[in-house]
Design brief:
By secondary structure, the chain is mainly beta. 8% of the residues lie in helices and 59% in strands.
Length: 235
């Protein structure tokens, strides 16, 4: 038990360091990969990671379709003080290939705002005013296919989120394409599991303008996931 608590504490510390080490304009959150099984299944998870604090939810509204709603919040330091809020909604299709294998694809749109305060070399971090500051507005559309295996004890999956980010700040409006493959592993028993995700976000473009934005490439998160109403085929 103490060993697990120590591992969680160390991982949390690493995430906090990664969040604060630079002032990226775009920090991709971890893709939500539910690997649904049946109508009426509900999933909710809380995770922390390189993008901040994440809440991911999914509800299977029919035997093969589902909706998701996700949110992210973070405050980071490192060249700038940033407060980031992002929310997105999606709709998808899932199909059980067998008792244990799942295939799914989601698409959706999201909106985020970054409250950005640049930090200057001779500025006193604690007492000087953080001026000037400006808001960054970001719009994202995505498609995300995934495949995985589900059992009463583990969920393992592989997904790739393909997204276009439309970034708006004073003096710069630019769009970039991002491809984010991610590995997902959840361990526990049926209703409650520990969740881990690791991925990398490849940036392409810019699609508009001649300039680009700095985006953090690595994606990592861990946390707790709750599954309700999932039907299992016992071993």
């Amino acid at each position: 038990m103490i060993k697990h608590i120590t591992q969680i504490a160390v991982t949390t510390a690493i995430c906090l360091v990664l969040m604060s080490c630079d002032s990226a304009y775009y920090v991709p959150d971890s893709p939500h990969v539910p690997l649904l099984s049946n109508k009426g299944e509900v999933q909710a998870s809380f995770q922390v990671g390189t993008a901040g604090s994440e809440i991911k939810t999914t509800w299977a509204i029919t035997e093969h379709s589902a909706v998701m709603l996700n949110g992210v919040y973070a405050k980071s330091f490192g060249g700038a003080l940033q407060t980031r809020i992002f929310a997105e909604a999606g709709y998808g299709y899932f199909y059980p290939l067998s008792d244990w294998f799942r295939l799914e694809a989601f698409s959706g749109v999201g909106y985020g705002i970054v409250d950005f305060y640049p930090f200057h070399e001779h500025q006193n971090f604690y007492s000087d005013p953080w001026d000037p500051h400006y808001d960054i507005h970001q719009y994202r559309g995505f498609v995300q296919p995934a495949i995985g295996i589900v059992t009463p004890f583990i969920d393992n999956g592989l997904a790739a989120r393909i997204s276009v980010l439309d970034h708006h700040q004073p003096g710069l409006n630019v769009a970039n394409l991002f491809v984010t493959p991610v590995l997902v592993s959840r361990k526990g028993y049926k209703w409650v599991r520990l969740s881990f995700k690791l991925g990398y976000s490849f940036k392409f473009g810019p699609l508009t303008d001649t300039r680009s934005i700095y985006a953090r490439p690595w994606v990592f998160s861990y946390g707790i996931q709750v599954n309700l109403n999932r039907l299992y085929n016992e071993f």
